[in-house]
Design goal:
22% strand, alpha+beta, single chain, 29% helix, 513 residues, 16 helices
Length: 513
């Protein structure tokens, strides 16, 4: 556990009305049509036609819209008072140019069903644009409001009329302008003086890069930074969060549950292709131990992949409660038996050894992996935990070279539609986990239909069918429902959360005076 020694905290930048925020990661390339940049930074600079809120989808760059009776045509009426930060007007021509650029990079965006469903974009007049779909796709507005890719960048930023190979500048319509960036050191965002909406109370946000978590926390204590914000263990572990929470020197905040932590079991691997083995592993994991031991009960145990509060997910599903005797019985039945007092089960001369892959830079993932390793040992399963740098972890996810892999769902507003849409994409761990199932084609067919059926009752039945199959096949070990956390200076006010765990609402924050 990290030991905290508090000195007086000086808010060095409060007098300049500048917020020093720190992350373990650089902002990288924030082209809104690509995926290498930090989403929180993209959200500061680039905006969408609509915005997802706790009260549903609301107008944003589009002040209103009409939907045709057949659900295939969306007509957006744009604001007249918006300009990109390079002076270019935001209008229907810019909207069409941006959406066409996204569609041109179809293969990269195919995880998002809306990209597949767009037939064409038509300019009606300077401030009216029509989006025609191939089918009545019910999450259209939600997906238009996601952090990426449907955000708008100035036509002047395009290179040869495209964005898929990079952009020449980061001119958006948002409340912040990226004015300086030193790779792996810091990025400076200043208020957009011509912002069309309500201007932020802060003058600037300086995004500092501090890769080491303990240094990050010390910087917060000393007042060198005033905010740490994290969704999933990248920034701090729960021990550190609680030590700061009880100190009274800094403020802490925790969101409502937003996403699902789970372990994906790879149904196409030699050992985990056996359903009884997968079910045994489900019963073997002490989820209460994870919720209390790692998250100190700040997160609730997940019995199902999606929480009941997620749309279409308030359904009765097979649940695997912690029962190691059941786990041992299932392994016995599948031919994996204990021999020679080694403590590891064998079958046909081969040991029951599995690999669990996780992102080594994530404190929570490492702790979870170690607890599961201990749980599996008690039922005769040897679990090798493999912590890798994020890119290596993602490469393994894409090629399916894992038995188990840590997974975090995308949370609000992506769950469930955008999340299950990605189950059909080979680069995702979910696809790799499901591809060995005999009914994988049926699973994909169910997803294909539920995304485009206009019948809400039919859609609910399909979601129920999908989640029932996945639970019955024991492809996921649900763990807990995650919450986004913030630690910040006592002088910083109006800290909160957006519906998406990937966004930070800097524009709402201010210093007390």
């Amino acid at each position: 556990m990290f030991i905290f020694a508090f000195s007086s905290v000086v808010q060095a930048d409060a007098k300049n009305n500048e917020l020093d925020y720190a992350s373990t990661k650089d902002i990288r390339d924030i082209n809104p049509h690509l995926y290498s940049g930090e989403m929180a930074a993209q959200n500061m600079v680039f905006e969408s036609l609509v915005v997802n809120t706790d009260d549903g989808v609301k107008p944003f760059l589009a002040k209103s819209w009409d939907i045709s009776p057949d659900g295939k045509t969306y007509t957006f009426h744009l604001r007249h008072d918006v300009k990109f930060t390079d002076g270019e007007p935001f209008n229907a021509h810019a909207v069409k140019l941006n959406i066409d650029a996204i569609i041109e990079n179809f293969s990269r965006h195919a995880w998002l069903e809306l990209v597949r469903q767009i037939d064409n974009v038509h300019v009606i007049d300077d401030y009216t644009v029509e989006l025609k779909l191939k089918n009545p796709y019910y999450p259209t507005l939600t997906e238009l409001g996601l952090t990426r890719p449907f955000r708008f960048i100035s036509p002047k930023s395009f290179i040869h009329g495209k964005t898929l190979n990079g952009v020449s500048s980061y001119a958006g319509t948002g409340p912040w302008i990226l004015t300086e960036h030193k790779k792996n050191q810091y990025a400076r965002f200043d208020v957009n003086p011509n912002y069309w909406g309500e201007k932020p109370a802060l003058n600037s946000v300086v995004w500092k890069v501090i890769p080491d978590r303990q240094t990050l926390l010390l910087s917060l204590q000393k007042g060198d930074i005033q905010l740490i914000f994290g969704a999933d263990g990248d920034m701090f572990d729960m021990d550190s969060f609680e030590a700061l929470q009880t100190s009274g020197k800094l403020k802490t905040l925790m969101s409502a549950p937003v996403a699902s932590r789970a372990i994906v079991l790879n149904s196409s691997r030699p050992i985990t292709s056996d359903k009884k083995v997968r079910q045994a592993l489900e019963y073997a994991v002490d989820k209460e131990g994870i919720a209390s031991g790692i998250f100190d009960n700040s997160e609730t145990v997940a019995d199902t992949l999606m929480a009941r509060t997620v749309p279409y997910s308030d359904i009765d599903l097979p649940v695997y409660s912690f029962d190691q005797d059941k786990a041992r019985k299932l392994l016995d039945e599948s031919g994996w038996v204990l021999v020679n007092g080694s403590g590891i089960r064998e079958k046909e001369g081969k040991q029951l050894e599995l690999i669990l892959s996780y992102n080594v830079n994530n404190a929570a993932e490492k702790d979870i992996a170690e607890l599961i390793q201990d749980d599996f040992k008690k039922i005769g399963v040897k679990l090798t935990i493999l912590g890798e740098e994020k890119q290596a972890f993602l490469d393994r996810q894409k090629n399916g070279n894992f038995d188990l892999q840590y997974s975090l769902s995308w949370g609000t507003p992506y769950d469930p539609a955008s999340f299950v849409s990605s189950f059909r994409i080979p680069a995702h761990a979910d696809y790799q986990g499901q591809k060995g199932l005999k009914n994988k084609a049926e699973i994909d067919d169910i997803i294909n239909e539920l995304l485009i059926t206009p019948d809400n009752e039919r859609r609910q039945k399909l979601y129920t069918q999908l989640f029932t199959i996945l639970a019955d096949e024991a492809v996921y070990i649900p763990l807990t429902y995650s919450r986004t956390k913030a630690i910040y200076s006592s002088e910083l006010e109006h800290v909160g959360f957006n519906p998406s765990q990937y966004e930070i609402p800097f524009e709402k924050m201010s210093f007390s005076h």
